[in-house]
Every structure is written in C-alpha cells, then in structure tokens.
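Q: Hi! New to this. If I give you a protein sequence and the SMILES for magnesium ion, can you show me the bound structure?
A: Yes, paste them in.
Q: Okay, here:
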Amino acid sequence: MIVYGVFASPSKCFDVDLLSQFKNMQQNPKHIDDLVSRFTGRVEIVPDFKPRSTIKHVVFDFDGTISLIREGWPDVMLPMFEELLPFLEGDSPESVRAMLFDDIMTLNGKQTIYQMIRFCERLKERGGIPEDPIYYKREYLRRLESRINDRLEGLRSGMELPDKFLLHGVLSLLNQLELCGLNLYLASGTDEQYVKREADLLGVSKYFGDHIYGALDDYKSFSKKKIIGRILKDNAVSGDSLLVFGDGYVEIENGKDVGGLAVAVASDEANNGSGNFDEWKRQRLLGVGADIVIADYRDASVLLEIIEGK
Ligand SMILES: [Mg+2]
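A: Thanks. Here is the predicted structure of the protein with magnesium ion bound:
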C-alpha cells in the first residue's frame, strides 16, 4: 500500500524531525516543474512555493471542496438575482449577469447572507427598495432545497452512494490526514444545520468530530476568519501549522492572512472526476495567494508528500 507507506510512521508526519530536511530544501528547492511532473492530474504550484513540515491543523471548506450536494447553487442564486434586479438604461442582460456573478463568486466561502447583503446594495444602487437580506436568503434556500432535495432523498434512502457527491479522491485525502494524526476542521459558509446534515449523509463527519462549523442565525458571531483565529489561539500555535483546503476566495485569503499554506481546489463541480479546472476559481484563488491549485484529490499522496517536503 504505497499510499499508507508514505505515512508508515505517524510520528514522522509533518514532524519537527524533518525540519533540517525542510531547511535544506529551502536552500536548494526542487524546480517547480519537477514537483508538477509527479502529479497525474492537473496542478499548479506557485513559483515561490516552499514545503512545510510543521502542519498540525487542517481546515476544510465544505461545499465544492468536499461535498457536491449543493453543486449548481450559483445557477439558483444568479437567476433569482437577475429576476429581482431592476434594469437601468444601458444595461444588457450579459453585463448584469457578469456583475452579479462576480459579486456572488467574490463572496463565495462567506456566509450566504453576505451575498444577499451585496444584492441589496445592488438593488439600492438601481433605485429599488430592498427587503431585509434574510428575506432573499430564505427565498434562495427554498429554491436551492427544491433543487437538491432529490439528492438528499437519494442519499437517505441508499439509492445514491455518497461517492457521487464527494469530490473525487477526498476520502483518500481525509484518511491520510487522519493517519498523520492531524487535527481536521470543517468550516462552511452554509448554515451549520445543513453542513452537519450533509456531512453525516456523506459519511465524513467522523473525520471532524466536534470541529464542524457553519453559518449561524447571528451571522456576525461566525466567520472562517474567527474559526481560524480560534484554532491558532486555543492551540497556542502560529499560522505555520495551518493548512487550508478550499474552493472559495474567503478561506484561501483567511488562511494566507495568518501565514497558513493554502491549497485551492478549483473543482469542476458539475463534472466530478473530469480532472478539469474551473477556470474562474483557478484564477481568482491564485489571485488571493493560493500556494497550490488542484482540480480534485486524485493525487492526494503526492500532494501531501510535496507539502511535507518529501
Ligand atoms: Mg466552497
């Protein structure tokens, strides 16, 4: 089992014993192309990438990073906004769609309410009188639930297997991280009750234990930034020990802001396992400082070796 052979000795995973090796690598880094050539799937590694052997805490986003149950959510949110936004002179359907899409995706990773708050600002700019943002969030969730209801029912009844809605290769990655004895956290901008429901349905709750966090009604009391800050504070560690996986702007930026290592998952959600990058995600996540971009987790072992500096 090559996969587990890499981590045959859990104490060697991201162990401080590897610090000297890490320092050598800093002085004499392998060429990025050599690292890239070890992957079978698509990967992008930034030129100044440095491995780090100090990882102890790993934060995952949920939707688009682990779960595909909510795949297609922008196809619910965007038409709803288009439907409700007043047109101004000079608007074209394409320009309005592009503006709204950019608003939506730039806030991807934050709680859903922030996308609604942004939409209310757009409404006001156009002379509209918006309802409370929570009104739009409820309507969006109503529409989204009807889209994903068949998927949830399929998983509950056993007619659908979790694999279909798990991003390609993610169980292998989670198993390897668990074997390394790393602390795993789930932090999602989706309401916490739904994150827990869907993590259970996909069989991944066990990897995270009590560390599953999602949006709360009091939206100011939760943020990914707060979760990351709490992890570092409670464990009295610096961002050196943090690894973040996400397909959203927010978690990548939050992870990088505290000095963590960020793996962007530019997942092609509609075609799980295609191995293609979602180009919008790839470009924007590199733009906020992602260290590595992958399309899925087919190369989980290689990815972890490279992060560790092996
Ligand atoms: Mg996401």
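A: Residues 1-12, 15-28 have pLDDT under 50 and may be disordered. Let me know if you'd like me to explain how to read the tokens.
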